[in-house]
Amino acid sequence: MTPFDLVEPASLKEAIALIDPDDPDVRPIAGGTALMLMMKAGVFRPTRLVSLRRLRNGLSQITSTMDGELKIGAMTPLTAIEHSSEVKRAAPVIARTMRRLANVRVRNVATIGGALAHADPHMDLPPVLIALGASVSIAGISSERSMTVEDLLTGYYETALAKNELITELRIPTQGNSQAVYFKVTAGSVDDWPALGLAAAIVSEGDTVRSVRLVVSAATSKPMRLTAAERALNGQIANEVHLKRVADIAAEEADIIADIRGSASYKRELLRVFTARAVRAAMEPRGAPH
Amino acid sequence: MNFAGDITVVAPRDAVFKALSDAPFFASCIEGVRNLEAIDATHFRAILETRVAYLRFKFKAEVELTQLSPPELIEAKVEGTPFGIVGRLTAITMTRLSETGGQTTIHYSVDATITGKLGSMGQPVLKAKAKDMEKHFTERLVAAFAIGGRGTAH
Amino acid sequence: MKAIKPQVGHQVGRSLPRLEAREKVTGRAEYTHLMQLPGMLQAKILRSTVAHGRIKSIDTTDAKKIPGVFGVYTSDDIQTVIPDPYYGPAFHDQPILAIGKVHFVGEPVAAVLAADPHIAEQATQRIIAEYEELPAIFDEVEAAENKVLVHEELKPAGTFADLKHLKGRKGTNIALDFRLRRGDVDKGFASAAHVFEHTFRTQKVLHLALEPYASIADYREDGVTIYSGAQSPSFVRTEIARLLSWPENRVRVKVPYLGGGYGGKLYIKMEALAVALSMLARRPVKVALTMEEQFYTITKHPSTFRIKSGIDKDGKIIARKCEVWWNGGAYADVGPRLTQKSGFTASGPYDIDNVSIDSYALYTNLTPAGALRGFGIPQLVWAYESHTDMIARALKRDPVDFRKQNLLHDGRPQATGTILKNAAIEKVLDRIAERLNWKKPFDRGQGVVRRGRGLAVALKAVISPTTSVAVVNIAADGSATLYCSTVDMGQGSDTAMAQMVGEVLDMPAESVRVVPRDTDVTPYDMGTLGSRSLFHMGHAVRLAAEEARDKIAALRRELGEPEGSNAPLGDLFRKKYGMQAGNIVGTGIYKPDYIPPDSSGLTTNATPFWMVAGSGVELEVDTETGHVRITRLINVADVGKPINPKIVETQLSGASLMQLGFSMFEKMHVDGGQITNASLADYKIPAIHDVPPVMENMTVDAVQDNGPFGAKGVGELATFGVSPAIANAIDDAIGVRLTELPMTAEAVLRGLYVKNNRPLGDD
């Protein structure tokens, strides 16, 4: 590893000012679990890392508002989210997803803001957050804005953030009657990166689907809504005939990438199978274990 | 790493062949190629500088046209080394042209290998980038011939 | 006259916790990777980016300019201190740094020394090496055609007599070919009622010990001290002495605990480079590899095994032909030894009159392959136990009954001609079947999830002949110290040896001090490998303890003590020497008998003991995704009378979990000779969630008559049967037969789709 500068600003404003928007070799670092791997692999050789460590205090709260919206500070470590009773109440799928997310050592150090800014398409939380309709607040040099997680993640390691913008907060809207599930399908060991991730959030009335979000990840260059499959399912009775059709549509609509975890043909089959399984699981009566 | 595909352009085969075997034109269709130098009729040198998000890749490459069989076959060999890190990029490309009506289909295949640290741990990123470049190449090529005649589109 | 009743009770057979357990879990244990010496420089390595090529130039100018760099070295520098810098246990073919040519991607080409390893690493990235690329070969069967040659000439070491005939051999990638001919297979096939032939393949995987390779060399004018995570310190000493043309007693090798070994840390790994660099720098030098670099150091042999069997009308296997191609990578390491020794049992634990075995060690342009827990046997069992099971199913025979009908028993000749003795194969098979409730009906399910069960049994001949020496030193106060060079790499050897000393000397094992490996102190041992230590070093330790005990008894007699007296040793010393001062030293040397195979691979004494084990599996297959979930894994072994049953159980468990990873998902992906998943982020090994919910590990009631206290080794046993047991269970569940490892979910699903006539696409 080549030497680099490590600066530790004390405030958000100071941190943003230290990131040169035109120099890709200057990067903010939160938990650093993903960045370290990129540096070890030699694909990222920074000249300066702007540590956000001292920003923790202001940016790691988990609160739920009166109307059930969940707000999570960007510097909150994943493990805090995993064990938070507010999160469990508002969006239990997140706590369930955490159990197999990386490993406990990574979860203790990685932050939610860092995870989203990293934009690795194999990660487990992004598809879940997109299914939940989550959005982020973003701070820039002189302004703030917000966008959905779906709009934030634009490609392989690519986000809609300007180079000198930082995510400050994650917001998850109240889920109401929506039930969400996430399937992490691994091809190797149980704790491998997934070959396919599938998140589903469904509001159902008996057997009928009132609203649905289906998100595929890991097998694609970024987590993607399966909009054609959603359209085919919305308002329908989720019987086996319909599920098969929806699953086939999902398998065709995604642009699947082959890698060492699976060929494109195989991942397509996984997508077909797990679309149906995810819908079934998301429609199970509340409280049924997934 | 293997890539293969077909690109159909609206142009006769001869014109397409001429265009593809013209190094500056070909290079203009690949994102990130600069400082193209011809050493002789079949040997070229160039810099390939590209990015995936904030990850920068810069290679010094040497290209050899190993076979030129007008109007249908172009084979080339690429050898490159990354700047500042130990490694090696090699690629063998084969392009075959077939014509139907006024259209030419370019059947291409690329067999690329990256060795060194980038090759041992950076494969997922590189594969994503290569796929991206493939898409970009296709778009550029189709656009170049759509303009009419062979353009030096940028 | 009454015999002295043991006061302490038996030490062998105790499930004693490991002696070093507390030290390890409290972080006090010493490992080479963490050691620091004053003035020490750290080495970082520049590695080849070409699979096969001539080195045109190596430009180190820029690297040398980096502040903090002590020096940059290539083979030219190495050769100024070690003129002939080639090493290896079977062939002296591996150069310390590449000379003239590189033979695999990742081969060490140059080294940088600096006090700060980050500076050294930075400097390696500034070295510019230019290669003239040569055609490369990666597949073992293709390599045997000799169209592309890896080496111009073979360089056998001459340390193994049976390799001498290979010296100077040119024009081939075959480093060794072992052949065994028993009876007449062609006649056998001709008269058989059924003939079956299948080909099986295994993939490149590696040891991945948690502690990567590390060696420190401290060279002085009058001697060199090497600290290394090495499984064979005596070999390191001999080999370094040979490279330096020094007498052995000027080379000292010290080995603390190993953070895992599994066969990867045998012979020479980083020791020679560390020594050469220390000689050049005149400072202590540490070569400590990263996890990624392990992928460029040593691996398991990928293999192709074509196996053909002829069965008579009564279901008896009357002929078996085995052809095995071993992918040895760019340097021989111990591959030739593996090719030969595994060849002995390639036909399996079956009583077959006509056997033909051809086993080839091939050079290819990949990371060298060497010893990995099982030493070739798991690859062979993968083939022969899958094949045997397929035959049983094809003949509509019960897989257990078919095996029993053909199994070898004590008193019968094994394929080499050696009569089987103390090999509890049938007991192992019966126990697995019993634990699987084999005779009871088994519900395979009817829905998406199907269930299956399978088993496999295997046989291994231990590497022979090898020598072990031990010394037991009893101080005047009666406390005992054991010196032996067996390396405790987590398998519990120190504890087992202490138990054996305690057994002979009638003292608690905990009171025996086992000295850490140090070739200035601990005598010769061939190496900690191939499950040999318990038997060979166990005998040496026993003999040493017995000699010490006998000397004490002789001293008693000399001093006129009454028979049966157990006056403390201190009293005896005071009587003889006037004070409680001095030592009683006992030495034991053990080398078993062995008859090398003749030109037909036959011998009446192939091995001092047979290793016997098997596994049974129950599993579920998700027929929509191909995922396999092992619900029960049963490992059964014959270890004679276990010295430490608890350690035996953990060795069975650990070996089978290691093999589980190799069976289900591990694979080194190679593209153009480059490993493309050289990191624990992408190359996954089994972790806690991969452990089957039910695992049973047990031994059968048995005795090894010629073993120390009736015991024999256990380390590798539970690697043997895991892979084929799983394949057999998958076949049982869904009628899909996998013949290549790893058995990924995708491979299973593809098999299912092919079976249902709608194969998946190729992309």
3D structure, described in words:
The complex is a heterotrimer of chains A (290), B (154) and C (763). Chain A is α+β, with helices and mostly antiparallel strands. Helix content of chain A is 35%, strand content 25%. Chain A is built from 13 helices and 14 strands. The longest helix of chain A has 19 residues, at 264-282. Chain B starts with a strand and ends in an 8-residue tail after the last helix. The longest helix of chain B has 24 residues, at 123-146. In chain C, 26% of the residues lie in helices and 23% in strands. In chain C, the strands form 7 sheets. Chain C has an 8-stranded mixed sheet. The longest helix of chain C is centred in the last third of the chain and has 26 residues, at 533-558. Classes of the chains: A alpha+beta (290), B alpha+beta (154), C alpha+beta (763). Chains in contact: A-B, A-C, B-C. Chains B and C meet through strand 6, strand 7 and helix 3 of B and strand 27 of C.
Shape of chain A: globular
Query: How big a fraction of the residues of chain B is strand?
Result: over 45%
Instruction: Note the main sheet of chain B.
Output: 7 strands, antiparallel
Question: How large is the share of residues in beta strands of chain A?
Answer: 15-25%
Helix segment tally of chain A: 13
End-to-end C-alpha gap of chain B: 27 Å
Any low-confidence stretches of chain A, pLDDT <50, length ≥5? none
In terms of topology, how is this protein built?
The complex is a heterotrimer of chains A (290), B (154) and C (763).
Chain A (H helix, E strand, L loop, with lengths): L4 E3 L4 H7 L7 E4 L3 H8 L7 E4 L4 H4 L2 E3 L5 E4 L4 H6 L1 H6 L1 H7 L5 H6 L2 H7 L6 H7 L3 E5 L4 E5 H4 E3 L2 E2 L6 E7 L6 E8 L7 E12 L2 E10 L6 E2 L1 H7 L6 H14 L10 H19 L8
Parallel strand pairs in A: 1-3, 2-3
Antiparallel strand pairs in A: 4-5, 5-10, 6-7, 6-10, 8-9, 11-12, 12-13, 13-14
Chain B lengths: L1 E8 L3 H8 L2 H6 L4 E6 L4 E10 L2 E15 L3 E10 L4 E14 L2 E14 H5 L1 H24 L8
Chain C lengths: L20 H5 L15 E7 L5 E7 L1 H5 L3 E5 L1 H7 L4 E2 L6 E2 L5 E2 L5 E7 L2 H8 L3 E6 L6 H4 L30 E9 L2 H7 L2 E9 L11 E7 L2 E6 L4 H12 L6 E5 L15 H11 L3 E4 L2 H4 L8 E9 L5 E11 L7 H9 L10 E9 L14 H18 L4 H8 L18 H11 L13 E13 L6 E8 L4 E5 L8 H13 L7 E2 L2 E2 L14 H26 L10 H9 L5 E8 L19 E13 L5 E11 L6 H20 L5 E2 L2 E2 L18 E6 L22 H13 L10 H11 L8
Parallel strand pairs in C: 1-14, 12-13, 16-17, 20-21, 25-28
Antiparallel strand pairs in C: 1-7, 2-6, 2-8, 3-7, 4-5, 9-17, 10-15, 11-12, 11-14, 13-22, 15-16, 18-24, 19-20, 19-23, 24-25, 26-27
Helix pairs in contact in C: 11-18, 14-15
